[in-house]
Amino acid sequence: MADASRPLNILALGDSLTEGYRLPASASYPSLIQAWLQRDGVNARVANHGVNGDTCADALRRLEPILQEPWDIAVVGLGLNDVWEGFSLERLRRDLSEILARLNEAGARLLLLEMRMPLPWPGAFMPAEGPQAFQALYPELARAAGAALHQDFMGPALDHGLVQEDGAHPTAAGMEAIAKSLYPAVTAMVDAYFDNQF
């Protein structure tokens, strides 16, 4: 993997799944990805801008100060809280599309994390448009924004029961499994970034 003399700035924008709900900061996927990139010789900083409970609208409202920093790559994982709050898929599509567009305009390469539907925990809401419409939203938005898509972000934790008692958030082992699944997609973007620099 290529390296560069300045730190590679990677933004991780999301909700509690990015923040690392009830986990030490070092156990969140952004921290793990940063440690592994540095281990592999990449001078990288992965900034965790995950906030528990954030909908796409919430993330959009706090995006402006985040964009005051230059970002080379942005990893975006949002949407489940929109469903939880009962928002329409049209609203989710509009807000998430705007986030991707603004990051794109700021010069960041985009990696969109696909969320799984139906939600696996008790009491979870379903979008009125149906789970298939929700699932189709992520590849649609990725194509429109020119973003790479990482499929089934939560799958490595959900499929092996590596979740906390709430059934919704990964344990430390679940977060590590998620990060391992995500890491090749991130390194592919890192390599593509450096290939275009030299």
Describe this entry's structure for a reader.
- By secondary structure, this protein is α/β, with parallel strands linked by helices.
- It has a single domain (8-195), classed as SGNH hydrolase (Rossmann fold), CATH 3.40.50.
- The chain is built from nine helices and five strands.
- The chain has helices spanning 16-19, 29-39, 56-61, 63-66, 80-84, 89-105, 131-145, 155-158, 172-195; strands at residues 8-14, 44-50, 73-77, 109-113, 148-150.
- A five-stranded parallel β-sheet has the order 2-1-3-4-5, sandwiched between helices.
- The chain is globular.
- The mean pLDDT is 92.
Quick structural gist:
This protein has 198 residues and is of the alpha/beta class. The chain contains nine helices and five strands.
Topology:
Elements: E1 8-14, H1 16-19, H2 29-39, E2 44-50, H3 56-61, H4 63-66, E3 73-77, H5 80-84, H6 89-105, E4 109-113, H7 131-145, E5 148-150, H8 155-158, H9 172-195
Parallel strand pairs: 1-2, 1-3, 3-4, 4-5
